[in-house]
Design a protein that fits this description.
Layout: H1 4-14, E1 26-32, H2 39-48, E2 54-57, H3 79-88, E3 91-94, E4 100-105, E5 112-116, E6 125-128, H4 130-148, E7 155-156, H5 165-173, E8 177-178, H6 198-208, E9 214-218, H7 229-242, E10 246-247
Parallel strand pairs: 1-2, 1-9, 1-10, 2-3, 7-8
Antiparallel strand pairs: 4-5, 5-6
């Protein structure tokens, strides 16, 4: 739980964030954490094209990038980067602390089988109660507020998009709202680059993305040999803008605009 003085700082800083421009035909770019190898490039492209996005944060392993050593996405080396994004007005939600993937429900109200894909228990299958899953959601919010002085909203994306009705109910009970992506919004940056080359993914997105779609990309995927963002992100943004679409955060989405700050 944040102490009262820290919360006061959160409110003051949030008020100074760059306001979001009106958007008549929006699409919603959402960006999950990853190895961060493309994070500086992504931030530069978004800034140059005046695009605001919604980021979902987990504490994942990172590459050495821009003088930062190998570490994790929410460590001290990356804190100034997140603080700058927050000040620019991007929206932020949770992706669970250890990037835990739902595998199964356990009995009736007995919890869940989860698999950690980050952190000290990476690769392990874990039994989590509803309360433990809620703590996984809350940890990125606490860390984000500590790094930036701003509150995370009570939005989350389950890693891999894998959920069950019971998992979503448990998250709602502790104050969290899940954000999926739309079918045409799956940009494919986590797919094999041999079977799904960048040019093909760009062409598909420009053809299929429509107003109202929630788009999904990552800040670097370890398994993709030909990185997606350097080749696709900028032409995707300019191509969709040329079709009359504009980019907005989930703060303006009809299903998610009313979601408030993360539980403390």
């Amino acid at each position: 739980m944040l102490a009262a003085p820290a919360q006061a700082g959160v409110e003051a800083t949030a008020a100074t964030a760059t306001p979001e421009a009106p958007c008549a035909r929006p699409v919603y770019l959402t960006i999950d954490t990853g190895h961060m190898g493309v994070a500086p490039l992504v931030a530069d492209v978004l800034a140059r094209h005046h695009v605001k996005a919604t980021f979902f944060l987990a504490n994942e392993r990172t590459q050495a990038v821009g003088g930062r050593p190998e570490g994790s996405t929410l460590d001290d080396a990356w804190a100034p980067w997140w603080k700058q994004l927050a000040a620019q007005g991007h929206d932020v939600g949770s992706h669970t602390w250890d990037h835990v993937v739902w595998r199964a429900d356990v009995g009736s109200h007995a919890g869940f089988t989860m698999q950690a894909t980050a952190g000290p228990r990476k690769g392990q299958r874990l039994h989590m109660s509803a309360a433990q899953y809620c703590e996984q959601l809350a940890q990125p919010a606490h860390r984000f507020a500590q790094m930036t002085g701003q509150p995370m909203r009570a939005l989350f994306r389950a890693p891999g998009g894998k959920t069950s009705p019971a998992l979503l109910a448990a998250a709602r009970a502790c104050g969290w709202t899940h954000v999926p992506w739309t079918p045409h919004g799956f940009l494919g940056d986590e797919l094999s680059s041999e079977r799904h080359p960048n040019a093909q993914l760009l062409e598909r997105a420009l053809k299929n993305v429509r107003e109202g779609d929630i788009l999904l990309m990552h800040l670097g995927i370890w398994s993709r040999q030909d990185p997606w963002a350097p080749a696709v992100l900028e032409p995707l943004i300019t191509g969709l803008q040329a079709k009359g679409l504009c980019f907005a955060t989930l703060r303006t989405h009809p299903d998610f605009a009313r979601v408030g700050p993360a539980p403390r």
